[in-house]
Amino acid sequence: MTTYTDPPKESFRLSMLLYDTRYRSLTIQVVALMGFMLLAAWLINNTIQNLAALGKPIEFGFFTEPASYDINQHLLEYDSRDTHLRASLIGLINTLIIAVMGCATATIVGVLVGILRLSKNWLVAKIMAVYVEMFRNVPVLLWIVLAMAILIESLPRPAAFRGDTPDATMKVFDSVAFTNRGFYIPEPLFSRSLGDIHLFGQSSLRMDVSLDFVAFLVVLIGSIYAARRVTARADKIQNATGLRPTTWHINTAIIILPTLALLVGLGFHLGYPELRGFNFQGGIHMRNSLIALWLSLSLYTAAFVAEIVRAGILAISHGQTEAAAALGLRPGRIMRLVVLPQALRVIVPPLISQYLNLTKNSSLAIAVGYMDITGTLGGITMNQTGRELECVLLLMLVYLSISLIISAIMNWYNNRVKLVER
Amino acid sequence: MKKSVILGALTVAGLSAGAAAAATLDDIKARGKLNCGVTTGLVGFAAPDANGEWQGFDVGVCRAVAAAVLGDPSAVEFVPTTGKTRFTALASGEIDMLARNTTWTLSRDVDLKNEFVGVNYYDGQGFMVPKGLGVSSAKELNGATVCIQTGTTTELNLADYFRANDMEYEPVPIETNAEAQQQYLAGACDVYTTDASGLAATRATFESPGDHVILPEIISKEPLGPLVRHGDQEWGDIVRWTLNALIAAEEFGLTSANVEELASNGTDKPEVNRILGVEGTLGEMLGLESDWAVNAIAAGGNYGELFEKHIGENTPVGLARGLNAQWQDGGLMYAPPFR
Q: Which domain holds residue A405?
């Protein structure tokens, strides 16, 4: 009979941390981590000590002081007596506006250009190639400054609209004015408005939410949901019987009629801008800083998006296209139904980076005097209070949060469109 | 621009404790150069000329300090700063002194940890409009679009003024004077507001300065002067007394033309002799050579000479002495006694 005995259990000795390969890598990692933490602690400690030596300990009390400066573009109500916190909030909203507008435009333009660049039409493909190379090879700051300079120098000043024989006239049935101070477009007004609800009392975060807008959104989302139910039912019938009932007229009616009814009920009409005093009054004023920033950021990023889309499409084997063609699909449908859905899984991850880039590039806004969060919190507030470190740290935190939120949303979308693997 | 603010903040973070304070003078002597922060370009106050040499009223102060400390008015490294970057540049040690049309306010002096050493120009905020607008008073500016340099006290004065007068305006924030000029001339704003001296200086560079008027209202007090950072009083004293020497020199008739001759021969006035270093040990008290003030005055002339040469009535900027005349002439320029 053989007996198996366990090999004598080696007792743990300290030297094994260094000489035993089972533990060595762990030791190295622990030492490296401690070193890194020491370095970080030294940096932080040094900063705090130096600030104390300068007599500027870190504190955020200045946020409750009045900001004392005005901000031209503010979606929420704001005046110079409001706090620095509110000024930062206004800046944050301006950053988000440019980020959302920019990402949406960059995506639309980018996808179009990316597809057109693969066009068999030589001229179209080359024009798109020129566009992409021009935009992505010049720093975005130059595009922003150029766009601003063009807007300022080439468009008429408001005074040119004055007089019996003005040098400039309003466009689109006298409803839109293009001036070198920005574009004035009609604004939606409601004669039987539901009013606003006021949130957060008198605090720095207070805001008025227009009930008209909320009602509009609710009705629109409800209609879209109903329309999707109709489509789902049509799918079901098609699966069961092979015949698809026509749904487009029902869907159109479902989406348009309730919204229209709501607008009529609220007394919807347009408020037109008109020249009074120095400037146009009424209507929505899109400042040229917003337009310059929006156009240049989205066209710049669209060039990168176009390349990503092109890469995504080229990543799909040509056999797919041929197979779809053999089934009798037309080119547009091949792109929409066969190629793009597969290409999306290649496109979306790098697209996230482009969205993040655009959002971060929006901090160049100060070049054209657009008051984003870098202009308010990281600009005037920092300058007037002298709290550089606090403001810069907060600013970094804000951009980090925005970026992580965008990443989270896009990752969720990516998970939905990626191929289901088993 | 933004980068330099952040870099500046990091530099503050990276300074070893205590090194920021004291010994600015030794650093400058070791370096052989004075780092002086100026504007990015404001004709008359600080702007590079056709040869790339910095010229101007504020530049003159930098040169005088360099001459007093190093004996050489050209031993200056001019660092252009914007309204936003100037204090960070000073706090981080990137520059030794700032001579940049900077308004002396309590919070800048106390909370931003700067030390204003005096006033070299008493100014006030004004408005400039094109003549064609037909505006003759700032009270008629309700609803106007106003160009302002961001990061300045003018931004705050403007908000207060329009608020106090119950008027609306549309601010267009701009980073530098040059950009503001471009926007104003293109008509992207109706009004340009900054210190009245800055308006005059800017107007002087226009193709047709006569088409623009500066409105009579002065809406604030803007005492502009050089400053250093907190924590090195000895260095602050040197800059303060160099400025005072320039002002006193005008009072006593010391000019760039006669100062060296007077210094070698001496005069019969004891205070003048003390300034000239012929008598007493004022230079030694400051830690400088005895001829410090002679060098400072010889660098670009006394206060009055600097004024006339760069921004006076015979220059394109064309500013009258006004508040900035010597105290005997009814102005505010008053140097404490050299004793």
A: 63-137+287-417
